[in-house]
Specification:
The protein is built from 16 helices and five strands. The protein is of the alpha/beta class. Bound molecules: zinc ion. Zinc ion binds next to helix 3.
Length: about 400
């Protein structure tokens, strides 16, 4: 049942299982594919299979999920499974043992632990420390040292390197040396959504396994199988707002099960509220206040999520306008607002609206100033929706 926990990727899973059965696993893999597609969960599942003490079903090559090794891997505590991701350099500085730990360091440690906790809760989450300069040379030196020891319980020592495109140059060169003469007991799994930014010499030493975005039908089926309490409508909302990103799918599922409004749905409501403000006459001051609040208090990713929700909403409105009987909405719970919008804005130019929204998302991803970008967006949006300058 272990591989079944992972959403989608039947082909990749069977390639790895078969390689393991035939004892032909490569010493280094590079898992590539879009962010949020679940590459790392497959890496961890392979680690579990290799370390599990009681593979439950040898024909299916499934880790039991309950033995000590399986549990330690889930808790990120297995000595033979190392997980490397970009951290702040502060965490790697040599500390004088005589000195008491300073505040900055303990704060950085707390941030690191928090990311690992989040990863344990949501295996699709990709941890990244905001102040990190990438995967640093010291991290690979440490890895080098660990790789030189034999694994504690026999078998393989597994290094999962997350966001391998962020290896800084000297770290990448150190890793390359290891890949050139890999110790027999070591398995490297590099994971990257931007493999083009990895040194070609590193890439060529790894067996590349490509992952694609998981199909909507697979996500829906998985939710249905694992959380039968979530009804069809909620399931469809989760699938449409996550846009194939499994980290968000799992977050939304957790929220639902906890009886809370999923974060994405809350952001969508806020986006629709903003749209109302923008389109209301004489509410300019209020609109500006809301934009300022968003720029200040929401993360860039949250603003992008909001704009993506608007994009899906506009798509629904446009389809409904072309075909009033259209029922396969992205947001099946928003039928009434969609119908009202069609009636209230007959002059809307949805091609222009979509393109302005897409451009705004791109600009925000490229670090544009949120307040300026959102203000410009609001003006353009109003013009294209109402046809009034
Ligand atoms: Zn096990």
């Amino acid at each position: 049942m272990s591989w079944d926990r992972i959403i989608g990727h039947a082909l990749q899973k069977s390639i790895l299982r078969n390689a393991h059965t035939a004892d032909r696993l490569s010493h280094a893999y590079l898992f590539t594919g879009p962010a949020g597609s679940g590459k790392e969960t497959v890496a961890f599942e392979l680690a579990r299979l290799l370390k599990c003490r009681e593979v439950s079903d040898s024909a299916r090559q499934d880790a039991c999920g309950t033995c000590e090794n399986c549990r330690r891997i889930d808790d990120m505590l297995h000595p033979d499974v190392e997980y490397i991701f970009p951290v702040e350099s502060l965490l790697l500085e040599r500390i004088d043992p005589g000195k008491t730990e300073n505040k900055r360091l303990s704060e950085a440690r707390a941030r690191y632990d928090e990311l690992l906790e989040r990863k344990k809760k949501n295996p699709y989450f990709t941890p990244f420390m905001e102040r990190s300069m990438g995967i640093l040379s010291e991290q690979i030196s440490e890895l080098q040292q660990k790789a030189s020891f034999m694994p504690s319980g026999g078998g393989k020592k597994i290094f999962i390197i997350s966001q391998a495109e962020k290896l800084n140059p000297s770290a990448a060169n150190k890793l390359l040396k290891l890949l050139e003469e890999p110790p027999a007991h070591v398995l490297f799994i590099l994971v990257s959504s931007r493999p083009e930014n990895i040194l070609p010499t590193i890439r060529s030493r790894c067996q590349v396994l490509k992952f694609s975005r998981v199909a909507t039908a697979d996500i829906e089926r998985w939710i249905q199988d694992t959380c039968p309490d979530i009804d069809e409508q909620a399931r469809r909302i989760i699938v449409s707002t996550s846009r194939g990103n499994l980290e968000r799918v799992l977050d939304a599922v957790h929220h639902r099960l906890d009886g809370e409004e999923p974060a994405d749905i809350a952001l969508r409501s806020r986006a629709i509220q903003l749209l109302r403000l923008i389109l209301s006459p004489k509410r300019l001051q209020e609109t500006l206040g809301e934009l300022e609040d968003m720029s200040r208090n929401l993360s860039r990713q949250d603003i992008v999520t909001m704009l993506s929700a608007l994009l899906l909403f506009f798509q629904d409105v446009n389809r409904r306008r072309i075909d009033p009987s259209w029922s396969d909405l992205n947001n099946p719970d928003m039928e009434t607002p969609v119908t009202r919008f069609v009636a209230n804005f007959p002059a809307a130019d949805f091609m222009a609206v979509s393109s302005v929204t897409e451009q705004t998302i791109h600009a925000l991803r490229r670090n544009a100033n949120p307040m300026l970008t959102l203000s410009g967006f609001s003006i353009e949006l109003k013009r294209h929706l109402t046809g009034v300058r």
